[in-house]
Design brief:
Metallo-beta-lactamase, Chain A, six-stranded mixed β-sheet, 2 domains, globular, alpha/beta, about 250 residues
Length: about 250
């Protein structure tokens, strides 16, 4: 019989450089918060940010399940730090929002095409194809392979789990709205990154569209009682907060 909605944090994420701690360059390896959601027949992993071996261990420690039990992987964005361990879930459906999938695909394909042309030209002329170019080419090839495997997610992943678009951090950033009997939880990815960003009303630097990111920040606070941020633990939405985001 299908189960009721339940969720838990599998791994708490972190920023490589936390701007609100005064860090200007990476001092650690960034990775996203990973959440496990069970609803109906769906077992969903959101943002598998850790490397596959570490994530497999955390999944066992935190939920007592193996990767093959996961039916869906959902990415709140296509950021590399949100999908580092995605290949752990070979038997699952990989999903992200249709807007994100369409938006990121074209520039990746264009960059890959240009670099492949440069490599071919280097072979013909005998010029050197530099090591950094080869590394970038391999990264882009992996990105394309992952993107090709993903599907555009439907509006709902189960009766209790709906997509909640949060454009701004990336063009098609999208959270998951978990509708419990007592409260509503939003898995919001990097739209709200940490407790400091929530408390100070700030979005991450480098957003694709800062104004849209601020609007999405506001919408997240309007809809959710509880927030699962992109790089922190579960947070309670401050009640009666008229300020909203400030930048």
């Amino acid at each position: 019989m299908p189960g009721a909605l339940e969720y838990r944090i599998i791994s708490i994420g972190t920023l490589g450089a936390h701007p609100l701690w005064g860090e200007r360059s990476p001092v650690r390896t960034g990775h996203t918060t990973t959440t496990l959601i069970r609803s109906g027949d769906a077992t969903i992993i959101v943002d598998p940010g850790l490397p596959a071996p570490a994530l497999k261990a955390r999944l066992g420690e935190r939920a007592g399940i193996t990767p093959d039990k996961v039916t869906h992987v959902f990415l709140t964005s296509f950021h590399p730090e949100a999908r580092r361990g995605i290949t752990l879930f070979e038997h699952a459906d990989w999903m992200l929002s249709e807007a994100e999938r369409e938006t990121v695909g074209v520039p990746i394909a264009q960059s890959l095409g240009r670099l492949a042309e440069s490599q071919e030209m280097a072979k013909k002329t005998g010029e050197e194809f530099h090591e950094d170019q080869q590394t970038t080419l391999e990264v882009l090839q992996r990105d394309i392979a992952i993107l090709a495997r993903t599907q555009a997610a439907p509006d709902s992943l189960s009766d209790d789990v709906d997509l909640f678009p949060l454009p701004g951090y990336s063009p098609g950033a999208c959270g998951l709205l978990l509708k419990g009997t007592i409260d509503t939880t939003l898995v919001c990815g990097d739209t709200i990154a940490t407790v400091e960003h929530l408390e100070q009303g700030k979005v991450l630097p480098g957003c694709a569209d800062r104004e849209k990111a601020l609007e999405s920040f506001t919408e997240a606070l309007e809809i959710a009682d509880l927030i699962i941020p992109g790089r922190d633990n579960l947070l309670i939405n401050p009640t009666g907060n008229p300020r909203g985001p400030i930048g």
